[in-house]
Amino acid sequence: MNTETMRIGKRLETPGNTGMFVPARPAAARSAGVAGDVELKIVPSAEWDTVAAGFADVIPEQTGMFNVGHWGGEKIECLLFFRRDQLIGGGAIIVRGVPFTSTGVAVVKWGPLWRRAEDTQDNSHDIATYKSVIAELISEYCSRRGFHLTIMPPSVPEHDERMSHALAEMGFKEGSNLAAPERYIVNTHQDTETLMASFDQKWRYNLRKARKNDFEIGFADGEDGLTAFMDLYEKMMSRKGFLDSSAIGSLEDFVRNSPAATRPSIVLVSHQGSITAGGVFFTAGEMASYMFGATDDRALRLKAGYALHWWICEHLCSQDHVKWYDLGGNDLDAGLHQFKKGMVGKSGHILQAPPRFHYASKPAAKILGDSIFKLRDAKAAASRTQHKLKQWLRK
């Protein structure tokens, strides 16, 4: 076992951060506001998702329909940011007010969006644009509403460190991180032959074995695909008894209610006439995302996961707008780390997810935010410890 695997394995003993916010009254919204030369506008989730498709940095967690499915529509505010009538940014914000108080929390998970896809050839991706959007978020949620604001920057090659540095410069305080902060990013902005050569030798070996099986692989969008995937997923969870901290509960609403441009795709892998593996993928922006996966009890032996991910890589390499394929994290699983590390290979990146960044301009908001996140982390730690005990007792 190499040093990196040992480090992942050691963190298996460390509980993660997967809890939810304490319930609270949703904050009141407004139609528009101005801070400096930037104007803010709150729009319906469906309208935002249509606009979000025009941003290079769009990901599922910054779409309205994903968040509505996960948190509920009353807790989500979708924003557009304009400078002199020109759209410069936007985002989906989780907003929770506290009953009987004038404060609350606002959380921007892996956002906001600020890099327009149409502006990749000019200076519109200057970090000043990001700072302008953040300044308006501070003005709206901290200064006007008296809330605690938390920003979780996304893990994006070439940009994540710039965003973290900008937040620190603007007065945000660095907070805790995910229990497993590694993010595995495959470089799909190349031809498939070059990508294949970049994989670790063992990953290529397992892929060759997988390709000897007579798999049928393809997109399965629509109700039939959604039903087939959810059935496979539920059977997998029942069989393995995993602690499921994912947002799988949002998938049905996300698929059914999203505009075509931001709707996730389902890919199914069949062997001898029945489904053995499946995955849900988001490909609207330059960073494609592996959202959810499911397998039956044959998939490990057949190495269906290798076949599934190679098939989607071939598809992504043919999409000019997609540069990266985000495989997600390792969930403190050493085997998952090895699989994803081998796929990242020589040309991809294993990034450390930026920590949470917190901002509050009023003492009550700071105390509230600090308390909520400490409670959240403690709840997540207890949940993981309880799950580990249950698994031990089942042995």
Structure report:
This protein is of the alpha+beta class and 395 residues long. It folds into two domains: 205 residues, Gcn5-related N-acetyltransferase (GNAT) (Aminopeptidase), CATH 3.40.630.30; 170 residues, Gcn5-related N-acetyltransferase (GNAT) (Aminopeptidase, 3-Layer(aba) Sandwich). A hairpin with a 6-residue loop joins strand 4 and strand 5. Helix 4 packs across helix 5. The longest helix has 32 residues.
How do you describe this structure in short?
The protein is an alpha+beta fold and 395 residues long. It has helices spanning 3-11, 45-52, 64-71, 127-144, 160-169, 192-198, 201-211, 223-240, 251-257, 299-302, 304-317, 334-344, 363-394, and strands at residues 32-35, 38-43, 76-83, 86-97, 104-109, 148-152, 173-174, 182-187, 215-219, 265-271, 274-282, 287-295, 324-326, 349-352, 357-359. It starts with a helix and ends with a helix.
The CATH topology of the largest domain is given as Aminopeptidase
> How large, in whole angstroms, is the Cα Rg?
21 Å
Total strand segments: 15
**How does the overall form come out from the CA principal axes?**
globular
Structural class: alpha+beta
- Tell me roughly what share of residues is in helical segments: 25-40%
What is the helix tally? 13
Number of structural domains: 2
Q: Can you give the mean pLDDT?
A: 87
| Estimated share of beta-strand residues | 15-25%
Report the CATH C-level class of the largest domain: Alpha Beta
Runs with pLDDT <50, length 5+? Answer: 1-34
For the biggest sheet, the summary is: 8 strands, mixed
